[in-house]
């Protein structure tokens, strides 16, 4: 007997302008079996799997079409494991301090919501800086880490299901989130609704218009299965304006990466990681040293950061 399977894919109109007129930039390299595997770990591996990338002829947004079904994407994120939190902890705590400094420059209000907060390193720094910080994170595992390590208030439902009060938040942040979601404009409109008039939105995404992206092409590590929208600084600013945000401008903060976090993906790529894994654990002597050594770089090297107001 043939069992009728749910279709795996969902075709999308342009997530910014809603039109259905695009050119194909490159095709997917995923095979049927790849979809059985869960989504990625935290590591960036060049030459990974990716979907078909298209470019809207009307607004020039680059997006993946078709995508895996939205319900499946949410379920995958809900089950995502954050077993590597100790490896990224030092560098994320450092980088997110710079993100807090960025928003403090623009807005001193207290109520802050971070959507897609992950293990909540940013949220922890924001609460230390005096914000009443709340987070949303689909990954049950990451949210549990945020609660147990930092005692933070983190919801695990999608934003649209939470029905948060209107005109409530002084600041909403979306750090590297919009490239993952099937309907970024819907999320931005909901963020607009829950922000107070004059409230601040800070957004970052990988920048497909960056020199790095242009040089590396399909081998740029941000071209991967889970990134289904690819913004340039301009297309990111455009979608914010489309969601009625005002005074939209680009910004920059200091990103950081520890030597350990930088080395592990390289070793994995060279298939050497399994051999040296134990000496590189974050609580090993070498692991601890390498985790303390940080490389700082301006976010605009790889990301677009944009701030805007309601
Ligand atoms: Zn478009």
Give the arrangement of secondary structure elements.
Layout: E1 9-10, E2 22-26, E3 53-56, E4 62-64, E5 67-68, H1 70-79, H2 85-106, E6 111-115, H3 121-128, E7 132-136, H4 140-150, E8 153-155, H5 159-162, E9 169-175, H6 184-194, E10 195-206, H7 211-216, E11 229-230, H8 233-242, E12 246-251, E13 254-258, H9 259-269, H10 273-276, H11 285-292, E14 294-298, E15 303-309
Parallel strand pairs: 6-7, 6-9, 7-8, 9-10
Antiparallel strand pairs: 1-5, 2-3, 3-4, 4-11, 10-15, 12-15, 13-14
Helix pairs in contact: 2-3
Structure description:
The structure is a single chain. With 310 residues, the chain is of the alpha/beta class. The protein has 2 domains: 9-79, no CATH class; 85-252 and 305-309, 3-Layer(aba) Sandwich (Rossmann fold). The chain is 34% helix and 24% strand. It contains 11 helices and 15 strands. It has helices at residues 70-79, 85-106, 121-128, 140-150, 159-162, 184-194, 211-216, 233-242, 259-269, 273-276, 285-292, and strands spanning 9-10, 22-26, 53-56, 62-64, 67-68, 111-115, 132-136, 153-155, 169-175, 195-206, 229-230, 246-251, 254-258, 294-298, 303-309. The strands form 4 sheets. It has a 7-stranded mixed sheet. Helix 4 links the parallel strand 7 and strand 8 (153-155). Helix 2 (85-106) crosses helix 3 (121-128). The longest helix has 22 residues, at 85-106. The chain is globular, with a radius of gyration of 19 Å. The structure holds zinc ion. Zinc ion is lined by residues 14, 16-17, 19, 56, 58-59, 61.
């Amino acid at each position: 007997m043939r069992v009728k399977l749910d279709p795996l894919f969902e075709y999308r109109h342009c997530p910014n302008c809603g039109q259905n007129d695009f050119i194909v930039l490159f095709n997917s390299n995923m095979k049927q079996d790849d979809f059985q595997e869960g989504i990625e770990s935290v590591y960036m591996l060049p030459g990974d799997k990716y979907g078909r990338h298209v470019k809207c002829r009307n607004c020039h947004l680059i997006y993946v079409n078709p995508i895996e079904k939205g319900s499946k994407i949410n379920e995958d994120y809900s089950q995502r494991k954050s077993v590597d939190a100790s490896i990224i902890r030092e560098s994320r705590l450092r980088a997110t301090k710079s993100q807090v400094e960025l928003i403090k420059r623009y807005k001193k209000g207290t109520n802050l919501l971070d959507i897609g907060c992950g293990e909540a390193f940013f949220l922890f720094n924001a609460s230390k800086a005096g914000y009443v910080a709340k987070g949303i994170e689909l990954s049950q595992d990451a949210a549990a880490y945020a609660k147990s390590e930092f005692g933070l208030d983190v919801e695990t439902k999608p934003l649209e299901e939470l029905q948060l009060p209107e005109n409530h938040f002084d600041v909403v942040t979306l750090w590297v989130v919009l490239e993952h979601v099937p309907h970024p404009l819907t999320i931005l409109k909901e963020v607009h609704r829950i922000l107070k008039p004059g409230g601040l939105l800070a957004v970052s995404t990988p920048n497909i218009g960056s020199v790095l992206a242009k040089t590396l092409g399909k081998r740029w590590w941000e071209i991967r299965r889970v990134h289904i929208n690819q913004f340039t600084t301009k297309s990111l600013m455009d979608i914010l304006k489309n969601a009625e945000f005002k005074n939209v401008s680009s910004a920059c903060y200091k990103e950081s990466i520890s030597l350990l976090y930088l080395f592990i993906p390289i070793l994995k790529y060279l298939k050497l990681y399994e051999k040296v894994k134990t000496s590189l654990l974050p609580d090993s002597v070498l692991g601890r040293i390498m985790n303390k050594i940080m490389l700082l770089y301006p976010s605009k090297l790889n990301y677009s950061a944009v701030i805007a107001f309601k």
